């Protein structure tokens, strides 16, 4: 329980606020294709301290998927959503949280649909994803399971009356917002006296080509589109009434935020370097996808691709190794050079050495805590599940087979101080095998091996990798007689 809430238990009243979008239309639906891709919620200011419990904030609604001609999607066709992004997050491009009192943005999460799969897959095991997350955010352990959610429709209304096919809506969802400010573990004060004076949440939706994917979703005759409807925002708040020790003692508020950067990698030895302009970086995570897949409706735009057969990686600050004083070595190449028990198997099944260091530092970076405190993950080395990281570069891109869950991350500070990159250069070097042969292709119908699949980055556009970087930074809002200041 946050400290402020614990000190004022006798004066707290918990309430649930249900908000509708302020820019909703008469039919209360939003979609990129219909020309209404922006969803906006306004949280009003209060006269007394009102604490928003961001971790339990939920956006609720209904996802309806059809062809552009209005027909229902067919269960046997290839239409998919990413299993780790879920029904809502896969539809979202950007999320902006701003303060009404300060009249400025507190956090802007760009490419939201790509950071959520990394968070969900790295910090939840498959059992939890297939149960708790499946019933709320509509997640699943593997991509093929998501196909059935897209062709589920409400045949009857709440009164038990049959609904015409053209008016039937799709699956319901209730999902959290994985913004840093809501997941910081601190309550957000919405009051005009001691807090941010109300907030605005703006959600920009992705285009159809970045959401629904698969061979049938991209085909002109059966091209798939989506609509979000019946949207509400459920906000658990604690209203502090009567005497309390809060109003006179608050001089600053700390919160986390995600900042996104984008680069491309097109050689087997690549260096990404820039100045983030952030003064308190807790961790940084990167995920990858073949660049040509982006914007192509045949392929999963949220896929956490295996960048290749990695040899080693180093993180640096102003050219010096930091926070690790050594290169992070991988045993992927050594594993893949070993003979397989079965030459024609589609997945390797040959883990002789375990990439324990990659797993440890990766989970620490995503969870922003030491490895001993990480309890669950869906990440696996070589299994059929979507969490496997031992797959070829383009595994799972079409949705027919499970994908991978490769996310690279590093933790700078587990205790809240952060690392200053306001004027320092962050860089990482990634070395992959130039001509790796990581996974063999397999024709299940014919029962024969297709030979080795090339898995490399050779300088061509076909193998160039898009690298999405997300910096988790701690920010501070300071209140003083001279005014209010935000330090990032």
Report on this model:
The chain has two domains: 3-250, Adenovirus Type 2 Hexon, domain 4 (Distorted Sandwich), CATH 2.70.9; 253-475, Adenovirus Type 2 Hexon, domain 4 (Distorted Sandwich), CATH 2.70.9. Helices cover 12% and strands 35% of the residues. Strands 1, 2, 4, 5, 8, 9 and 11 form a seven-stranded antiparallel β-sheet that branches. Strands 12, 14, 18, 19, 23 and 24 form a six-stranded antiparallel β-sheet that branches. It contains eight helices and 24 strands. The chain is mostly beta strands and 488 residues long. The protein starts with a helix and ends with a strand.
User: What is the CATH class of the largest domain?
Assistant: Mainly Beta
Give the CATH topology of the largest domain: Adenovirus Type 2 Hexon, domain 4
Helical residue percent band: 10-25%
Q: How far apart are the first and last residues' alpha carbons, in Å?
A: 25 Å
How much of the residues is beta strand, in percent?
Answer: 25-35%
| Tally of distinct domains | 2
CATH superfamily of the largest domain: Adenovirus Type 2 Hexon, domain 4
| Overall 3D form | globular
